[in-house]
Amino acid sequence: MCNDKVFVCRCQEVTVEDVKEAIKDGATTVAGVKIRTHAGMGLCQGRSCGKIIARMLSEVESPEKITPGSSRPPARVAKISEFLEVK
Amino acid sequence: MNNKNINDTDVIVIGGGVIGTSIAYNLSKRGKKVTLFEKYDHARGASGSSDQLVLMQSKKPGVHLALALESLKMYKTLEEELGEPIHFRQKGGMILIENEKEMEIMKGFVEKQKKTGLDVDIISLDEVNRLQPGISQDIIGATYSPMDGEVDPIALNIALAKGAKANGTKIVLGTEVKEIITEGKKAIGVETSKGKFYASTIINAAGVWAPLLCEKLGIEAPIKPRRGQICITDEVDYFIDMPILSAKYMMAKHNPDLLKDAPEMIAKLGIGLALSQSPKGNIMFGATREFVGYDKNVTYEGIGEVIRNAVTYFPQLKDMSIIRTMGGLRPFTPDGLPLIGWTEIEGFFMAAGHEGDGIALAPVTGKVVADIIMDGKTFVDMSGFAPNRFSK
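Predict the joint structure of the above. Result:
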């Protein structure tokens, strides 16, 4: 079923092929794939694709060496007006 | 084991950010055999946590601005040269002015910038509104330069690395350079987490980590990490037509003393507005300027103030959402200029300390370094960038 055109990161429309290309270019971490493809830079911030990318990386790198993607606040999409209410 | 000449290389570059990869690209283009070591991966330091501005207006009038203008020229053909998308676009840029005191400071700045060759003017609020709708009507004017631009800094970093590789550069990721190997007063190689490697020229382009390698050699390199926190919105319709800064940004960057009359948190966190929109629609805005060592985490206080500040200039931001915040470390130097040139250790070259100007200056830094190493000179007098200028 799997083909190279399947989306890994739906937010940024990054395909299996794009991720494979990033790994070929030297990415060994989820963050490395992110900078090369934009996977994980969209609305969900890699919460869905991060695991798939880590699994793909495990084919070339031993799993204990694969660092998870960086997770930065906010934990979910946050309205800017909400920050203004809290002093 | 004797590892001498194990990798048959002329030059070792330390650091895989935009500066290191630009140097590797330029040297390899001119025929040098280059090996680049990077502790983690590309875009893991300042290059990957920057906004996307290629600003001329924020450079110090004089040789700093002259270098930036040369870099700008190079940007115009860089995408074609590298054959990779870097999304450079020159759309102009504005610095928003809130009061008469800021107006005086900016007028002085503009005058000096014009003398260095920058096309820049003070414009009225009406003109600001015409160029960029949505700005608060509480400002009294702005400076505008049609020469300012934007680029995707991460794409630039990757494209320079690919360009360097295509020219034969060996890029070694995930490999830490622990120290410089010397023989007397001469650098002859590097000790890395994967063994020793030798070359006659070693270039330190390790950004905020550059001084740590100098320390071990007894070389003074007063580069300090200066944290910047920025916010990124989700993708919204095209709204911001050019990079926008505030006059307070210029003060926070060049002379924080001028912020002493500003609200307490703005002065404390060194907040100035820098805002732009990516081709995909994300609006990025920042930033703080803080000395907190190597801590690049974002703080609730910092993000809160960055947001409050941005909303005073762009009230419409209130209705938008942020998907990500980011903290990064700019390599600050006491006089705002990078350290570019030979050190007192023969064969050991510095190219670090660009603070928030690394993206704008990356192309020209690569060229200048390659010129100095290959020809012993370049097109401008680089004595103001001498790495030993602080120890004199």
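DSSP finds four helices and three strands in chain A.
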